[in-house]
Amino acid sequence: MDLSFFIMQFLSGLTMATLLFLVASGLTLIFGVGKVFNFAHGSFYMIGAYLAYQAVSVWHANFWISVLIAALGAGVFGMFAEATFLRRIYGRAEEGGFQILLTYSFILVIDDLVKLIWGTEYKSLPRPLGFGGAVNIGGLTIPAYNLAIIAIGLVIVILAWLILSRTRSGRVARAAALDREMLGSLGINVPLTMTLVFGIATAMGGFAGALAAPLRSVSPGAGIEVIIDSLIVVVIGGMGNFWGAWLGALILGEVNAFAVSTVPDWASLFNYLVMVLTLIFKPEGLFASREIRKV
Question: What are the phi and psi torsion angles at 187 (to 5°)?
Fold first, then answer.
């Protein structure tokens, strides 16, 4: 093992961390603003992957346009699901249980819809034009598409932080997380705010699915694996915390990258080991909100 090995694995982990963050940040945004545990969030990741495949392979669209189509499609589907189904159970005493049952039913419905439309066979998506090769940096050969994903992820992190902290829309979303009734009394359309937040969050999941499609096969059930890793990320970072999702994704991505290259037979165990250690020593997460710490 030399320095080049560590750099390559670090970049591989950073690529995975970027994709995980895009999914987990949407999951934590929904929970942070709406206190909704969207168990089906991984299914919107899968929708994004299939929509990108449809746009590139069937409609022959440009890859980057296909990524935007995938994000938009997943976001619209997410807003429909929130406005049509989830909105009906807000405020109920047994809301948490209903959320889990309802969003789990989304998984079953979406999986069957995917099989009905695209079939059960595995799909593949080529890397975008100009990003199929590698870049030589300091004697290291790094896949160009991986670098593109990392760069896109950094841009999204900065943009998301600016929107949440510096814009009126971001302040409204954060206010909705604290007191929806008070926000409504100030004349804000809270149901529309919740729908838009859900749409943005699911669009981020679809965006991640489209970006990941050239790296992984596109298949029914792909959302299950990613939702498990995303839940681990949220547990590590703290439920509902944006920066916690970023740190959790970075930790899990790097742990997975080095575990796969050194102990591949035990790689999946390390993901759960990180989660267990977090639950033992920091059960509220590394970046828990003040409300969770008080409890």
Answer: 95, 10
